[in-house]
Structures are given as structure tokens and as C-alpha cells.
Design brief:
By secondary structure, this protein is an alpha/beta fold. The chain has three domains: 43 residues, no CATH class; 107 residues, Aspartate Aminotransferase, domain 1, CATH 3.90.1150; 227 residues, Type I PLP-dependent aspartate aminotransferase-like (Major domain) (Aspartate Aminotransferase, domain 2, 3-Layer(aba) Sandwich), CATH 3.40.640. The chain contains 15 helices and eleven strands. The strands form three sheets. The protein has a seven-stranded mixed beta sheet with strand order 2-8-7-6-5-3-4, with helices on both faces. The chain has a two-stranded parallel ribbon with strand order 1-10. The protein has a two-stranded antiparallel sheet with strand order 9-11. Helix 1 crosses helix 2, helix 6 packs across helix 11 and helix 8 packs parallel to helix 9. It is globular, with a radius of gyration of 21 Å. The two termini are 30 Å apart.
Amino acid sequence: MKLTRRNFVGTLGASAAVSLLASTTLVNRGASAQTRVESASKIYDGGIIQLNQNESARGPGPKTLEALHAHVNKRLGRGYSPDHVVELEEVLAAYYGVTRDNVLLATGSTPLLQGSVRAFCSANRGLVTAAPTYATSEGTARTIGAPVRQVIVTADGEINLAGMAEAASGAGLVYFCNPNNPTGTVHGPEAVEQFVRRVMRENPDTVLHIDEAYINYADPSVMKTALPLVQEFPNLFITRSFSKAHGMAGLRVGYALGQKATLDKIRGAWGMGDINMLGAIAAITAFEDHDHIDWEREENAQIRAFTVAAFEDMGFKVPKSQTNHIFVNLRRPAAEFRAACLREKVLVGRDFPPLENTHCRISLGSREEMEKAIEVFRRVLA
């Protein structure tokens, strides 16, 4: 995601951001529209290597970009009932061997996470989640006053499935991110199945959410989707996103797979947003472009191996990652490291309690970006 005025201010602090903005032609009221756009691009992208949002540095594949260009026409003016949205549901349903009733589209994964917490949690039915993990579900639970039970990851950065199952007693929802963000670790199909069956057996009224946003980056020999279990258990659903390996973070397309009654409750609890026609056609094209996803996975794996090797050479431990980010034990506060890197125009991840005083998440950029970033990391950590 490009730096926006809002998150730019949040990153640098209000006074620093205002000073930088004031020093450019962006605030020159006499500047042309083209000059303002070019100036904005220089500010928001300008020299900063963005390794903080787990996006694809390569963006959509060539076929997806071609599809987008082909559909930028006058038809966009007739978009209150967007073309291709139903087709996207049909494509997903056909691929996974389910019906459209088993597919719930959303503008990214965020509404799905928010809606599931609102649907299944309350003051009496809390959320169980790992720590650290992706925090939208936790944040939503705290917003609505639902209790939160956090289960700390293991020393290797893996989600403690036994601890999660024990904590599930009486819970409304269990959130399980696999592969996990920020640690990058993954649980294989046997461990996942044992976990699901235990939670469903011991807590049949609890809903289990498995977030597979990063599955396309995982080695297929290591991880499989939990969809077969979704078809067996009504209280289990999974979510996916086009924002990661498909390179479509800016188009906001995500989806859930589950049984109809469960998805209906999520839809009824929170708005899912409206997928637009360009997002839909891009998602269809990206989803069917399996060769590009295979290439993206391999490219990311090579960049990840290079980056991990560099940190290990510097003497820092990195949990085994199956994602497009790593979680490095820097033995110092992430905020300290982040500030030092930003001074060198490299932006890394936010704090992830309870490990914010030792670990930092670093997203993987392009080969060129990571070569430059490693030079910065070596200087900062020297």
C-alpha cells in the first residue's frame, strides 16, 4: 500500500510530516494538477522502501493488468450493479467444489474478521486468539466489550494449538491465522485437523475461524487448506484475500468459505462492502492465473531465503516463515529499530505485543529493495 497522508502522519509524527509536506509543491495552490500528482507520488513513495504492510512488491500479474486495462471503458458508468461479481462467486465456488451459498465476498478480509466477531462474540462469549497474531479480530472484540483470551506463541513463533484448544471453553469464536502473521509460521494439515476436531468435540457451540490469507506463499508440501473440514463442520469457516500473493491490496477483494448458515450470520452482523467490477474481473483473472501464483511463490521464497540468511549472518534468529514477511528477534525494541531504519528511508512493521521489545516484522519487497534494505539493516544493527 502506498503511503497516504493519514498513515504518513501516523508514521513520522504530525510535526515532521507537516514540515515535509510544506517543503513540497503539493501545498502550492498554484501548481497544476499534474504537478500536484507528481509531487504527491514523490512524497508518498519517494525513496522510502516500504517493508511494513505485507503487500506484494510485484503487484498483479501481467494477465490481471491486461484484464484491468481491457475493462476500463464507458461500462464503468453503469456500475451500480457491478459486472463480474456473481461470476467471481461462481468461479470460486466451482474451483472449491461448493455452491455460491458457501462463498461470501467482502472488500478485503477486514469486514469478514469484524463481522465474525460481532456475529459470534458478546460480553458472555469471548474471543480466543494467539499473541502475537493479526489483530483485527481482537480489536473488534474489545470494541464490542467481548472478553479476549490470548495464547502466547511458542519460543519458535508457532501458534500454541493445545493452548488455544484449552482456552476455547465457553468462547464464542476462536481465531487461528495459518500461516500466522506476524511470525510467518505454519501448521500442517494433520495438526490443523487434530486441533479442529478437538475444539469442535469439546466446544460444539464455539465457532472456529481459520485465516488462510497467506496460504499462496506457503510450500504446498507443508500446508493444505482446511476447506474439507469446513464442509464437515458447520461452525468452521476460512477466509482468504487477494491482497497478498495476487498483488491486489489496492483493489480490496476477500472472501470466506463456509456453510450457509454461518456465512449468513457474518453477513448479517456487519457490512461486507461492495466489490466493484474492476476488482471482480481482476480477482477472476488473478485466481485463474495459477502459473503466476507459482512464480510469485517461488520468487518470494528466494527473496525470503536471501533475507533470512543475511539476518542469521548478523547473528539474529528468524522463525521459520512460510509467508511474505519474517519476524526477526532483534533483541531490542521494534520501535527503536523502526525509527533508525526510517531515518535511512526503510519502513518496517509496527509493534506486535507481547514481543514488541524483542521482535520486528519485516515484509519482503522486491529483490532490489531487499538488497538495499539489508545494507541499511547491517548499518543500523552494527
